[in-house]
Here is the input.
Amino acid sequence: MKPNKGQKRKPNHKAFIQENFSDQQWESFDSDEPMPQGKSDEMHRFILGHISSKQQRRLKLIRVTKYLSAASIILIIGFALYIRPKNTKHQELPVTAKNELQAKVTTSSWKEVANPGTDIIKYRLPDSSFVTIYPASTIRFKREFDQKLRNVYLLGKARFKVKRDPMRPFSVFSGTLKTTALGTSFTINTRGKHISVKLHTGKIVVADTLTQQTLAYISSIGTTLLYDPSLRFSRIVKPATVIPPATALLKREGSLIIMKNIPLTKVLQLLNEAYGIKVNSNLTDVNKITFTGSVDTGKEQPEDVLKLICLINDMTLTRTSEQEFLIQKNR
Here is the structure.
């Protein structure tokens, strides 16, 4: 088979085959017919050039793909680095601003009053209750009490005079103790080993904030609750019974001396003056003794009066001279 002769063009596999080999020539092609040497070389070069062209395009495609992949990775990393600081900043700023706002609200809504000096100070609370703050003591409370509660936190010693408000209990937190009242006065001291709560007027309830148990209901004025935080132990100390001093009476009716709750030292002085005698005694023995009775200096002898006084008070009378006596407490 002889290929068609024509004008030489740039090798193209489709055009080359169609121009040089028609369909009839392919059908009548005999493999025994030798191909001209020029055409054979030309086809060989064409095939090699075609293969080389495809390989070069494939290499270019691979290089472009690699470049695009590398560029994509660089773009993604750059975008992530660009976005990350913005997101971090966007997340952190609101949190910081919120914390600062909360800190400002917390600081502004609470009030702390401290007494670093050596004199006591008085302070008026938001509900018009008064507190006496002792040296080295501090109270803390909300600038505006809640609608249902009036809470004060104490460190040290303070006396509270609470304005009565049945709808809003007044509570003082001191360590693990909570002292609650509606309208009364009391003193709390957290110094030292024990916490003490002393009632002055009204009524109070003292509870343990850890166990939520009521420790005492105090209504007797002067009663003190002592609480040991380390042992979680409390006890009530009632006020000492105060005996009012007896009414003294000294009355004279002629030679009669009427005495009621008169100190014995005064009685002996009266006898010395009335009888013209001298009665010696140890002041320690007679200092706390009183005498109630009457003496008629016109009818009774001084020795008989002194014997009666010694008998009543468990004492001994000794006559040291005609007008001198000694009385002593029996040991």
Q: What stands out?
A: The chain has a mean pLDDT of 79. Helices lie at 13-20, 23-27, 37-109, 264-275, 283-286, 302-312. Residues 116-237 form a domain with the Jelly Rolls fold (CATH 2.60.120.1440).
